[in-house]
Amino acid sequence: QGQEKLSCNPKKENGTHVVLCELGNPMKAGAQITVDMELSVYGLEDMGDAITFHLQLRSKNSPSPSNASVIVTVPVEAEAEMELRGNTLPAILVLPTSWHWVEGSQRLEDHGIKVEHVYELHNKGPSTVSGVTLSLAVPHLLGDHILLYLLELVTEGGMNCSHHPVLNPAQV
């Protein structure tokens, strides 16, 4: 009839995590109750696609066949929102009409004006992520001509990168 807040205590029992909730004592014979529980479970990243709960109503009175357990399987879905931000320094670049490429030069200035592209990949959560692959295509050739001369690829934050175009082929 009324709603009551249960007193529940988590503990470990036989290597598993158990939550014991006291429903009331004494309970009248033939009483029917409904219990709604909300559980917050953390660290499920490596648990697979479901978690199983074993629910059992136990009485401190003599054992009865009604003390059987019920198995409830709940699907686990990880959710994470990724955000990619990019910036180019300088934002606007105008190549002087008097400039020309000097073939075979080891000077950086003879290959063009330095442009730096910075990309940041952010996990906005709520879950953690692993095994993320970011593919970034950089147009470095226009026909047989060099459009962008790629000097280096630098990463931060424990990421591994592989690159297909040859970086700094003239060793500028």
Automatic annotation (TrEMBL):
Residue ranges the record marks as coiled coil: none
CC terms in the record's Gene Ontology section: external side of plasma membrane; integrin complex
UniProt cross-references to InterPro entries, sorted A to Z: Integrin_alpha_Ig-like_2, Integrin_alpha_Ig-like_3, Integrin_dom_sf
Record key words, sorted: Glycoprotein, Integrin, Membrane
This protein's record includes keyword Cell membrane: no
Domain of life: Eukaryota
Gene3D superfamilies: ntegrin, alpha v. Chain A, domain 3, ntegrin, alpha v. Chain A, domain 4
Matches recorded under Pfam families: Integrin_A_Ig_2, Integrin_A_Ig_3
Swiss-Prot/TrEMBL GO biological process terms: angiogenesis; cell adhesion mediated by integrin; cell-cell adhesion; cell-matrix adhesion; integrin-mediated signaling pathway
Gene Ontology molecular functions: integrin binding
Signal peptide segment: none
Stretches assigned to the Integrin alpha third immunoglobulin-like domain: 83-171
Domain called Integrin alpha second immunoglobulin-like: residue spans: 3-76
Bilayer topology annotation: Single-pass type I membrane protein
Localization annotation: Membrane
Name of the protein: ITA2B protein
Protein species of origin: Polioptila caerulea (Blue-grey gnatcatcher)
